[in-house]
Design goal:
Layout (H helix, E strand, L loop, with lengths): L1 E2 L7 H6 L6 E5 L4 H16 L8 E4 H32 L8 H29 L5 E5 L3 E5 L5 E6 L5 E11 L4 H4 L5 H8 L4 E5 L11 E2 L2 E6 L2 E2 L8 E2 L2 E6 L6 E3 L7 E6 L4 E7 L8 H20 L3 E7 L14 H13 L1 E3 H5 L20 E6 L3 H4 L1 E6 L11 E9 L4 E6 L2 E5 L3 H15 L12 H18 L3 E5 L10 H18 L6 H20 L1
Parallel strand pairs: 2-5, 7-8, 16-17
Antiparallel strand pairs: 1-2, 3-4, 4-5, 6-22, 7-21, 8-13, 9-10, 10-13, 11-12, 14-15, 15-16, 17-19, 18-19, 20-21, 23-24
Helix pairs in contact: 11-12, 13-14
Length: about 550
C-alpha cells in the first residue's frame, strides 16, 4: 500500500483543488487483460447499482507520470538549494576557511549521489513502461491498480471508519449419530455445504471419545466429548458439543477458550463478540443436578464476558418452554429462563423476531408438536445498537428432530487491517504472431485516425478514454492477439446422476417441511427413499 504521506493529498485532489487523503493499493497480476476484465465486471456491477462508489478509470501510466513529475520537481528544488549553498560558499573563497577542501569533497560526493539517483530513476521508468494496468477510484478516496495478476490475489486495506461485514452463525441439536451425519451424502453434510455460514454450533453429538475427524470439505471441526449421567459404563453418553467454522474464518475466531460439558464458546475479536453455544438437559429425576450445573456454568461464563464488556450471543437448546415465546405451555426451565434473562438484562430474539415458530418437531406436524426450545439470546450491550442481529428458524431436513436456527450479525470491521481474497476471472494469453499484431494495429489506427469512424473531439475526457480503450481491446481480441481463458472460481463439484437424485429428494423433503407436512405418509416415504439412495452410493464407493 502506497500513500502520499508528505502532503496528504492524492493527485486528483491537486488537479481539482480538493484536499483529501488518498490511499493507493497496487495488485500484481499476470496480464493487463485480466485487469480489464475485472474492471468491466465492476463497471457492470456499477450499472446494476451494486458499486455506486466507482467513479473513474485511468491508466496507471498517467498516474505514474504525475508522481514522477512531482519527484522531479522535488529533486530540482533540492539541486537548486544545493547550488545556491555552493555559490554562497564560493563568495567566501577569498576568506581563509580551513574546512573548504572538506566542503568541496562533500559537494563532489553529493553530485555522484545525484547521478546514481538519476540512473536508478531511469531504470524505474523503464520498469514502469511494462506496468500499464488500470486504475480504479472510489468515493472512499482509494485507488486500486488492477495489473496482470495470478488467479487469486490478496489485498490488505485499512479503513478508519470500518467496513460493513456480515457474520452467519448457525446452531442445531443434531440428536446423536454424529459420525454418520458427517458422511458424504448425509442430509446434515449437504445442509452444511449449502449454508454459507461462518460458525456452526452443534449439541447432542453423543460421542464419548475424541472425534478424529478434524476437517470436512472447507470446514474445521472442534469437538467437545460427551459426558455420562451416571458412573456406570452401561449408560449412554449424554450431550457432546461441536463447533464448526470455515477455513477463511480460522484466523478471526478463537474456539473453546471457555468450554464445559454443557457449553462451548467462539470469540470473534474483531467485533468484540462472544458466541456461547449451550445445551441444558431436560428436567427429570436423573438430570436435575446436571440442569443446575449447566445453568451455573452458563451464568459464570456470561459474568466473565460481561465484566470484559463483550457483546454476548447465546445460542442453544435450553429445553425451556414458556408461553411468552409463543409456545403452548410452560415448564420449570421456561420459567427459569425468563427470570434469568430479566435478572441479567438479556433479550430473547425468538420473542422479538420469530415468536411462535417452533424449533422442535419430532417428525410430527405443528398441530401435534409445537415446542420452542432452541433460543438466540443477546445481552444489553451498546454495540448491539450498532450491529444488527437477525434470527431465523431454518425449516430444513438435517436428519434431526430439531430445526437449525441461524443468526446473522451485521457489524463494522476495519480498525485493524483486513485481508480480502480476489478471484481473477480470466487468464490472458498474448500471441507472438507478427501478422496478427500488424492487423490489430492497422484496425486501431483506422478507428482512431482523423478519417476513421471514432470521433472523440466532442467527448469529455472520460468518454473519450472509454471509447478509445473499447476500440483497442476490440481490435486486440478480434484479431486474436489476446485470447482469454476463464478461471474456475471456487471448487465446482460435478454431481453424477445418483447425487442429483439425492439432491432432488432432499429438496422435496424441505418443501414438504416448509408446507408443514411433517409426519405425513409422503414425508416418511421421501425419507426412506433418501436412505435407500444413500446406501447405494456407499456401496458404489
Amino acid at each position: 500500500m502506497e500513500t502520499n504521506k508528505k502532503t496528504g493529498h492524492g493527485w486528483k485532489g491537486r488537479q481539482y483543488g480538493k484536499a483529501w487523503k488518498q490511499k493507493y493499493v497496487i495488485i500484481e497480476a499476470r496480464s493487463t487483460m485480466d485487469a480489464t476484465r475485472i474492471w468491466r465486471t465492476l463497471i457492470q456491477a456499477k450499472k446494476d447499482g451494486k458499486f455506486p462508489g466507482i467513479t473513474r478509470v485511468d491508466f496507471k501510466k498517467e498516474y505514474q507520470n504525475r508522481r514522477e513529475d512531482e519527484q522531479d520537481a522535488l529533486q530540482q528544488r533540492s539541486r537548486h538549494i544545493h547550488r545556491r549553498d555552493r555559490e554562497m560558499c564560493n563568495t567566501w573563497k577569498s576568506t581563509v576557511i580551513p574546512e573548504e577542501k572538506d566542503h568541496q569533497r562533500n559537494g563532489n560526493r553529493t553530485e555522484k549521489q545525484e547521478a546514481s539517483t538519476e540512473e536508478r530513476r531511469k531504470k524505474e521508468e523503464r520498469k514502469v513502461d511494462f506496468m500499464t494496468g488500470l486504475c480504479l477510484e472510489n468515493t472512499n478516496q482509494e485507488l486500486c491498480f488492477l495489473q496482470p495478476s495470478a488467479k487469486v490475489i490478496e489485498i490488505k486495506r485499512v479503513n478508519p471508519m470500518g467496513v460493513a461485514s456480515e457474520y452467519k452463525i448457525i446452531f442445531v441439536n443434531v440428536h446423536g449419530d454424529f459420525r454418520n451425519k458427517l458422511n458424504k451424502y448425509s442430509p446434515f453434510r449437504i445442509f452444511l455445504n449449502k449454508q454459507k455460514m461462518d460458525i456452526m454450533g452443534c449439541c447432542e453429538t453423543k460421542i464419548a471419545g475424541i472425534l478424529k475427524i478434524g476437517q470436512i470439505d472447507n470446514v474445521r471441526l472442534v469437538h467437545q466429548p460427551s459426558y455420562y449421567r451416571a458412573s456406570t459404563s452401561e449408560m449412554k453418553p449424554s450431550n457432546g458439543m461441536c463447533v464448526l467454522y470455515t477455513k477463511d474464518f480460522e484466523q478471526r475466531v478463537q474456539i473453546n477458550r471457555y468450554a464445559t460439558d454443557f457449553l462451548t464458546t467462539a470469540i470473534v475479536e474483531e467485533i468484540r463478540t462472544v458466541v456461547i453455544f449451550v445445551y441444558v438437559p431436560p428436567m427429570d429425576r436423573i438430570n436435575a443436578l446436571h440442569v443446575d450445573r449447566a445453568w451455573k456454568e452458563l451464568d459464570e461464563v456470561v459474568e466473565i464476558f460481561q465484566t470484559l464488556q463483550y457483546a454476548i450471543l447465546i445460542m442453544g437448546d435450553l429445553n425451556a418452554r414458556n408461553k411468552e415465546t409463543g409456545d403452548t405451555m410452560n415448564n420449570q426451565s421456561g420459567k427459569r429462563l425468563i427470570d434469568w434473562c430479566r435478572q441479567k438484562a438479556m433479550r430473547i430474539l425468538n420473542i422479538e423476531q420469530c415468536k411462535g415458530e417452533r424449533t422442535f418437531h419430532a417428525d410430527k406436524p405443528a398441530t401435534k408438536v409445537s415446542s420452542i426450545v432452541d433460543y438466540a439470546i443477546v445481552n444489553d450491550h451498546p454495540s448491539w445498537k450498532e450491529k444488527e442481529v437477525k434470527i431465523e428458524v431454518l425449516q430444513q431436513y438435517v436428519a434431526s428432530d430439531h430445526y437449525p436456527i441461524k443468526c446473522t450479525i451485521k457489524g463494522r470491521v476495519g480498525l485493524k487491517g483486513k485481508s480480502t481474497k480476489l478471484h481473477v476471472p480470466y487468464t490472458c494469453k498474448i500471441s507472438n504472431d507478427q501478422k496478427q499484431i500488424e492487423a490489430a494495429a492497422k484496425q486501431i489506427v483506422n478507428k482512431i485516425g482523423r478519417s476513421g469512424k471514432l470521433q472523440i473531439e466532442k467527448c469529455t475526457n472520460q468518454e473519450g478514454y472509454d471509447l478509445l480503450m473499447a476500440e483497442i481491446y476490440n481490435a486486440l481480441i478480434g484479431k486474436k492477439v489476446i485470447t482469454l481463458k476463464k478461471n474456475k472460481i471456487g471448487s465446482i463439484v460435478k454431481m453424477n446422476l445418483g447425487q442429483e437424485k439425492l439432491m432432488e429428494i432432499l429438496d422435496k423433503i424441505d418443501s414438504e417441511i416448509q408446507r408443514g407436512e411433517h409426519g405425513t405418509k409422503m414425508m416418511t416415504q421421501l425419507v426412506e427413499r433418501y436412505k435407500e439412495e444413500q446406501k447405494k452410493h456407499r456401496q458404489w464407493e
